[in-house]
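Quick one - first record:
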Amino acid sequence: MTHAEAASRAAFLRQEIDKHNRLYYVEARPVISDRQFDALLRELQDIEARFPDLVTPDSPTQRVGGAPLEGFVQIRHTVPMMSLDNTYSEEEMTAFFARLQKGLGREKIDCVLEPKVDGVAISIRYENGLLKHGVTRGDGQTGDDVTNNLRTIKSLPLRLPADAPQNFEVRGEVFMPKAGFARLNQEREEAGEPTFANPRNSTAGTLKLLDPKIVAKRPLDIVFYGLADASDMPVESQTDVHALLDRAGLRKADLIWHASTAEELIAAIRDLDEKRRSLPYETDGAVIKVNSFADQRELGFTSKAPRWAIAYKYQPEQAETRLLAVDIQVGRTGALTPVARLEPVFVSGSTVSNATLHNFEEIERKDIRIGDYVIIEKAGEIIPAVVSVKTEKRTGEEKPVVAPLHCPVCGTSVHRDEEQVVIRCPNPHCPEVVKRRIEHFVSRGAMDISGLGESVVAQLVDLKLVRDVADLYQLNELLLARLDRVGTKSIDNYLKAIEQSKAQPAWRLVFGLGILHVGAGGARKLLEHFGSIDAVAAAGVEELVQCPDIGEVVAQSLHEWFRDPVNLELLGRLKAGGLTMAQKEVTAASDNLAGTTWVITGTLSEDRETIADTIRSHGGKVSSSVSGKTTYLLAGSDAGSKLDKATKLGVKVIAEPEFRAMLEKTS
């Protein structure tokens, strides 16, 4: 085969493979067998191996990238990725439609309803017909460049058809199909690896992997729902967008409804609820959009979301199963928490075999017994909970759940905290208590020592390399080399993260110590008030309660902790290790937020204390509760009662993209 013949044949094969990929993955109507498809792909691989100069970026052979990445590059969105307002009731849907009618001044308004795919939001840019990059939502303004991982998705075109627009940015949702998720978990279980909790978690985790070759083994897929900017595109409605997606070979929602009245919208929502379980992906609601772009422009936006769209969330799904046993987990404070072991049942997108029982008083109140048939509920990513018992199904063989008298791990006699209905293991050296304390200490909200996850911490404790958090700062290459499945690069990363944590603010250290009743906000207040950990340690209860937000219970807990010789010895070792023990002045970045008071709620791109630091560094104040004195409520996803209160009080609600823009403004 000459070079010219090879080039011609390779071009034909790429076109054929792309066509069959689209027929199989997007249109679900394959016309050749898997064996025939594999033969086409192998022939193309052979040609490209013989003539390497013929390899193109859009070749189907390039769906698995090269070497693993060191990290993700950040890319700023050309148009911010905003979130939608949520509603959970049909009454609120009717009210939403009434607002549309008022805003547009007419009774009937054409709306489009699509399934809300429970995946990871993504924005993909095509230029000159080629996939240029794909970016995660991130904070709405900036996201991670995950292009190499997205290239592994077989339903995603690397090159657009010639008759489709060649330059645009499209928004979609990456997901893991139900069948693929089940298959992946089975493979992991057989390999002795931990299984994933649900398809969304596995999707998010897969997109964060730095090795595209591993990503290629995961069954990711993608569905698209809109354009980042339609102003220069030949589209005037969501219906036009659907047609454009079809022309471009980009997969759109499997089910789509049109409705022009509130009654029709509610009927469509109910219809989707009946049909969504047959979809190949998990859904947690419906997205409703005004169809006409002219109408959308007239309706406009609030500070955080479009007025012309809303997400209807379905109620948490419940399921009935049998309670097989009750195990006890030991937490970082020694709290013994009962956990239900269930007959596996599929609910809300995942197979559930464990559920929380909260505490032993709750078990007694609900009269939960081993052998009972129970109702469990799982809302989104929240841990499943046992909500009720089917007492009518009892046979008389059920056994009561008995509260433990001894710790199930170390055998120490338990202590019952009557005020808090908590049973605790009082042994500070209990292996499970030690593990949980270290996990808390290294967590993102505390000392933020990345890489030291649950499995690594477990090994450190089990091998007796670490007895407490101070021992982390005595680790070295030789000690870490004893860990199973940990390479040189990982060891370097662990040591670097441990060293960097020494510079964390002193309040993070206080929070990381896991003192009973002391949260991140309280730890910050303590350091702001006293200036150093030594001053906090020396303070009496009367002095501690003078600190804002520190009450009698917290003060007593602090006082007892700092009077314990074991804790003082630990603190001395941390100080000797070079950790920050005193409050540092916050460097003023600007006065852009001067004179404003903020309350933070919901899930944001960073933990709340980091964002609170940012607000203070720009001259603002941060409060824990909404009041008439609140200037702004910074609301992330899943905002709760604070958002409701802010709305009632007329407090301005700010989304994170607008907040970030306020920080960057110049006077």
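second record:
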Amino acid sequence: MQLAALIVILPLMLISYSANAIVNNCQPVSENSNDLIIGEIKLLNSNIFDPNNPDENSTIHKIANTLHIQTRQATIRQQLLFQVGDVYNQQKIDETERILRSKSYLHTASIYPSDICNGQLVVIVKTSDNWTLTPSISVGRSGGITRTSVEIAESNLFGLGKDIKYQSESNEDRDSRFLEYRDDNLFGSHYKLFVKTAENSDGYFDAISIAKPFYHLDARQALSLNTSREKKQIAIYENGLIVDTAGQLTESLNAEFGWSDGLHDEQVFRYKLGWQATDNQFFNVEDYPDSILPVDSQKHFPYIGVEYLQDLYIQRENFNIMGVIEDIPIGKNFSARLGLLDKSWGSSDDGYIISANYSAAIDISQKSLAFIEIGLSSEVYRSAADYNALSFNARWFHYSDFNNSYFLDAELQTADNLLSTNLYVIGGDTGLRGYPIRFQTGHNRALFSAEKRSYFNWYPYKLVKMGVAIFADVGSAWKNDEQADFISDIGFGIRLVSTRQSDSKVLHIDFAYPLDKQKEVDGFQLVLKAKSRF
């Protein structure tokens, strides 16, 4: 019996020893891993709060972790630009990190090689979740207008990364109820689906889009099909008061195909062919039956487009949102599109449409960043008035230290033959915070803002970050036959952001004091609004 037992046990011991030898044949990663094969990918996804951190182990943290449905590993794996068997590529690792950090349901994301086992890399993908179920009731006020909203949203449905939202809101334009669904990985693919339907007090809005975008820099093809219908009433303002209203019905269809040679030397060129059809009809509304309406238009045209961008990024904290690491693009980006209008295709006139956009960032120093954006749009017709528009925006950020920064913002928009329903506006949350909403309107708009920002280290329950800002605004909106009437304000504001929530909006509470037009406006304006930036 003993001999028989030895005969059985000895081979098992040899197999176990051999297996352990294979498993333990690992060594630390050297500095350069680019030529090694990825042999294993370990996904380490943690809940919202870390129970091993005393600052994140209270009752409220435990309840949040218990109620939260964690992101599934398959959801994270769908975002990876590499797989087992690929050669390790640091550019793909860095881009995958940025893709993961861009997902609202993830709070942090890092990817790194941990070991070399049997000549192949073990790569760790480490993430942590955000809280994604957000029922909310909000009241906002800006430029003398009160807005209310009731919303329930889930940006990580069943841990699958799907986004669904229902919202009922009331603002200066309309009362609205809408349902929205977004799926960025349809059936586990890289196709995206977006559906939105809204019932409004002045009409409706329905849209559906299905697309396979250039989901990463080295992607070679893209497809998209979008369609929408919208009926609404557009109020026309002067000195912050409604002077006219027009109804508008818009139907739009766009189909596009794109291709690229991929990423080369940190640069990407993309080319696009598409078809755009947009029909605009205007009508009188009951309260303003004698309004002078813009002319109806149909724009049906094929177009060609080109896009250029650079793969250059830096990371910053306390940039747009407090307490979150953000990936800031600092490369150049250029896009242009040319379309040909013809009556035989259903257009209301012959001509062409051209648009172009350019943006660039300047990494001035470790503490200073500057951004420039320029946009051009032109519509040239054979028998109708031409339309031309130019926009310019320059922003400058300077960080004195981790808790203090300065921000300057300069904007300019100018256009000719703007429709009365599309005039530029300024006042309230559209700039000039010390004045009523849409206080000035026109074909031109200029705004300059300066802010001193401070960020507090106080971080209660690892949930909310707080900051303050002192600001000044100068600007105007004016018609082409008028002189610009520049007005200014000063003020201070409080900023609050929930850092562990998927919709990390920055709550702005601003108290702004007008320095001009004292007899026409209130002594101060309260601006209460959730924004995507500080």
